[in-house]
Design brief:
By secondary structure, this protein is an alpha+beta fold. The protein has five helices and eleven strands.
């Protein structure tokens, strides 16, 4: 029996040994409830399956015998779990914890990712289209090599009248973008990645936050050939 109909389920693929795997739809912006995770583990234990976490924070159930695939899909659906998206459409948005959960976060990545999914989730495209949102220039979810990546920015300005030449901003800058000239801090804009760590570290409030922005990467990709997306800086979420 070929089980040719198994391929009709979204997120289902055939393994090299003839068994199947099921990719589950990612939890909202990569977040899962403990109940959802427990259901996945229970099903894996019940059918003696292996679990894999994908690089985009999704779960996959592996080693499914072909005659059991339909049964497992139905059990997943009854428990509120859906098999994952695939093919030429907008995939679930990948997101880091963002400003609501991470001390480095500048923008609320999870909230923005949910808005993207509500507006564009599974929208048909000529080829698979993967969005990603990262809260700061640490780029934990690699927005620069996604089809559409978003990164939070924190714009700052040095108030030379308040600068006490303490050196703290220079110590925390990982890009060595701050030096000192005549007793005051100076920024090298070619090296600065607009992370805002200097403003957070300054004990004299000499580095002022002037605004929050968004760097958008368009047309990035990974795979056989890595391509960095073209960059556009935007100043508001409405513009984004």
């Amino acid at each position: 029996i070929s089980y040719y109909w198994n391929a009709d389920y979204p997120g289902v693929g055939k393994q090299a040994d003839g068994n199947y795997f099921i990719r589950l739809i990612i939890g909202k912006a990569g977040w899962y409830t403990t109940e959802e995770m427990q259901k996945i583990i229970d099903i894996a234990n019940q059918y003696h399956l292996r679990l894999k976490i994908t690089d985009r924070a999704g779960y996959e159930l592996h080693d499914i015998k072909p005659e059991l695939l339909t049964e497992i899909v139905e059990i997943l659906n009854k428990n509120g779990l859906e098999s994952g998206t695939e093919g030429p459409l907008v995939r679930v948005t990948l997101a880091c914890p963002g400003s609501l959960n991470c001390k480095s976060g500048i923008i609320p990545s999870t909230t923005i990712a949910e808005k993207i999914d509500e507006e564009f989730g599974e929208y048909p495209t000529p080829y698979k289209f993967k969005p990603a949102v990262t809260g700061c220039p640490n780029q934990c979810v690699r927005p620069n090599i996604h089809d559409f990546g978003i990164m939070g920015l924190k714009y700052t300005k040095i108030n030379e009248d308040k600068c006490e030449n303490c050196g703290r901003c220079n110590e925390v800058c990982k890009k060595e973008a701050i030096s000192y000239d005549k007793g005051v801090a100076k920024r090298n804009t070619d090296l600065c990645v607009t992370c805002g760590n200097c403003a957070k570290a300054c004990p004299y409030d000499a580095i002022e936050i002037t605004g929050i922005g968004y760097r958008v990467f368009i047309g990035g990709k990974s795979g056989r050939e890595t391509v960095e997306g073209k960059e556009i800086d935007l100043k508001s979420e409405e513009e984004l």
